[in-house]
Write a structure and sequence with these properties.
alpha+beta; Rossmann fold; Dna Ligase, domain 1; D-amino Acid Aminotransferase, Chain A, domain 1; 5 domains; eight-stranded antiparallel barrel
Length: about 675
């Protein structure tokens, strides 16, 4: 077994590999760019080597720098993680020349399956069902449009060397093929150093299901069941689960058999994933093979009990698989949420900045529920514009699908992040969505269910009363604490009115509150006539200043995000974002007389929706534009975002130019 390995990656996957290496008694070497000097993976590893500037093309993607770092530190093997060099055939070849083992598949398997075009050809040869498409290299936009016309719309334009949703576009017309072809090639070049793309038929209302395979250097290959990854936005996975709610045992066995046959056909000898697009009728077609560890591998680990990183290391060291296909048993259900630095209220555009607060939920196993958080950041860390915006992967496992979903919802509620925008509000809301909970999903789920963008769930009914009661309880405990502090609010002998009025979601709820820190708080809601109504017994060890309130409400557990505002609190719970103002009766009467604040009109400006680099400006001052016209392209987190006109108008001035680095809400154009 190896004594020391280098991880040629960063962030959560580097930390994930280090954790398993530690358990195996293997020392680790991290590599880092200028942007990652203080990163968690650098701190966790036994050694760390600086490899260059922040841009991945000058650091994490430079093979010679990785090989030199491994040689200098005496690392016997290199784990590539995912992304970066993980699917570059030249990387294991260069390592082998230096006498270093690649913890991944052999170069021939990468060449056959890592390239999306070649993998289609190999799948056809192995008699694996594939999606209709054009597998040759496409020379220009005209050829792309001709191919798309012949296949029939909609089509998918995909980077040949792609992965992670980069370099991928759906086109429903010739015009969209032109835009998609250009953007796909540009993203592919920036992310993978390879701008080749191919086109295939896009299956309407599809599901994305993948099979985890594991092979060794002795000809043994098994599969570890499937993962469903249909909840996507911009063709990038957001929620994954294992197993899939679509498959039955017969379909699972058929997909697994095809995946294993394909892996054996190319001599696959590591962990890899065979991806399929599936119809709602359980028909399925091969999409591609990812010749690396997948981002979503934790859900497979939790339902099988198999550490995939450990297996990769053992296989790379020459050990035969000790696991037979008959040994693989799928137990329970696992759900994974990808927590991204992005703004769900601005169409999931990337966000960057410092993690002022980062408090993940408690990990471990309790009452049959497992909570796991794979991350590469900590409080005070920075989310950079140079890399993928994923902050963490939150995974829950339980006996049933709904139990795993409910555990995920509770864990998300307890996950506190401040300082940047993030997608937890969307994820918590999704966990309550009826269609998701029923498993009736497709890759178009987000677009179909949130056609006008994401907005928080409204606070209504019992949930509104719950949040109002917690707000009143927190306010009451804050006041008690002030009274107990000498000299504040007249001291402990001063009596205060127990009645409060909570303004929340357009309603004013009157209630009586009683209790003290360390003891249950009792909130009794009043009806319109002032008659006592529903009572809430609120039990919590929460202390003023903590960002997450946890406790029970009438015996039911709850976790609620709490942030102080003037005369109240911002609350977040199960996808609900609400501001609660807590008043005395006199304060409530006066608050009702205050005029509403009117927001400034910004409709005449095109604002930069995220921090990013201006790649192109398509208009000039004095130019007339129509709704839908391309105005500008802004690149952030390796993704290109086309900004289009929302309505007809005339550009009066252009405030930015190509190459500018803009902050969020910076003005790009002004309209007449």
């Amino acid at each position: 077994m190896f004594k020391k390995i280098l991880i040629a990656n960063r962030g959560e996957i580097a930390c994930r590999v280090i954790k398993t290496a530690r358990l195996m008694g293997i020392k680790t070497v991290a590599v880092f760019s200028d942007a990652d000097r203080e990163a968690m993976h650098v701190e966790m590893a036994d050694e760390a080597v600086h490899i260059g500037p922040a841009a991945a093309a000058q650091s994490y993607l430079v093979i010679d720098k990785i090989v030199e770092a491994a040689t200098r530190t005496g690392a016997e093997a290199v784990h590539p993680g995912y992304g970066f060099l993980s699917e570059r055939e030249a990387f294991p070849v260069a390592l082998a020349k230096a006498g270093i083992v690649f913890i991944g598949p052999n170069p021939k398997a990468i060449a056959a399956m890592g390239d999306k075009i070649e993998s289609k050809k190999a799948a056809n040869a192995a008699k694996v069902s594939t999606v209709p498409g054009y597998l040759g290299e496409i020379a220009d936009i005209a050829q792309a449009a001709k191919i798309a016309d012949e296949i029939g719309y909609p089509v998918m334009i995909k980077a040949s060397a792609g992965g992670g949703g980069k370099g991928m576009r759906i086109a429903y017309s010739r015009a969209e093929v032109a835009d998609g072809y250009t953007s796909s090639r540009s993203e592919a070049k920036a992310s993978f150093g390879d701008d080749r793309v191919f086109i295939e038929k896009f299956i309407v209302n599809p599901r994305h299901i993948e099979i985890q395979v594991l092979g060794d250097k002795h000809g043994n290959v098994i599969h570890l069941g499937e993962r469903e990854c249909s909840i996507q936005r911009r063709n990038q996975k957001v929620i994954e689960e294992a197993p899939s709610p679509l498959l039955d045992e017969k379909t699972r066995a058929a997909m697994g058999a095809q995946a294993v046959a394909l892996a054996k056909a190319v001599g696959y000898d590591s962990a890899g994933t065979v991806e399929f697009v599936a119809g709602q009728d359980r028909s399925f077609f091969f999409l591609e093979m990812n010749t690396r560890l997948q981002v979503e591998h934790p859900v497979t680990e939790l339902i099988t009990g198999i550490d995939l990183v450990e297996q990769m290391i053992r296989v790379a060291a020459g050990e035969p698989l000790r696991i037979k296909q008959a040994d693989v048993k799928l137990k329970g259900w696992a759900v994974e949420s990808r927590i991204y630095a992005e703004d769900p209220y601005r169409n999931f555009l990337p966000s960057i900045g410092r993690l002022v607060k980062y408090r993940p939920p408690r990990e471990g196993v309790a009452n049959g529920i497992t909570v796991r958080n794979d991350t590469g950041v900590g409080e005070g860390g920075e989310i950079s514009l140079f890399y993928d915006p994923m902050i963490a992967k939150l995974v829950t496992h339980a006996g049933t699908r709904l139990a795993a979903i409910d555990a995920q919802a509770e864990a998300l509620d307890a996950f506190c992040i401040e300082g940047i925008q993030h997608n937890i509000p969307f994820l918590t809301s999704l966990m309550q969505h009826p269609r998701w909970r029923m498993g009736k999903i497709s890759t178009g789920f987000i677009k179909e269910e949130f056609p006008d963008g994401f907005q928080p769930r409204p606070a209504v009914g019992a949930e509104l009363e719950l949040l109002a009661g917690v707000a009143a309880s927190i306010d009451h405990l804050n006041n008690n604490r002030r009274r107990d502090i000498t000299g504040q609010m007249g001291g402990p002998n001063v009596r205060f009115a127990a009645r409060r009025v909570v303004h929340l979601a357009g309603r004013a709820l009157a209630m009586d509150v009683a209790g003290h820190i360390g003891h249950p708080t009792y909130v009794t809601l009043l009806d319109a006539k002032g008659t006592l109504g529903r009572s809430l017994e609120i039990v919590s060890a929460w202390w003023p200043g903590e960002p997450v309130w946890t406790g029970t409400i009438n015996g039911q557990p709850a976790a609620i995000q709490v942030r102080n505002v003037l005369n109240g609190f911002d609350l977040a719970y199960r996808g609900i974002q609400a501001r609660a103002h807590v008043f005395t009766e006199r304060e409530a009467a006066l608050a009702a007389l205050m005029p509403a604040k009117v927001a400034a009109d910004m409709s005449k400006f095109l604002l930069c929706p995220m921090p990013g680099l201006v790649k192109a400006i398509h208009v000039k001052a004095g130019q007339d534009v129509k709704a839908g016209d391309n105005l500008a392209v802004v690149e952030a987190m390796k993704m290109e975002n086309i900004l289009r006109a929302e309505r007809d108008g005339r550009v009066s001035s252009v405030k930015a130019k190509e190459g500018d680095s803009l902050a969020v809400d910076a003005v790009i154009l002004e309209f007449a």
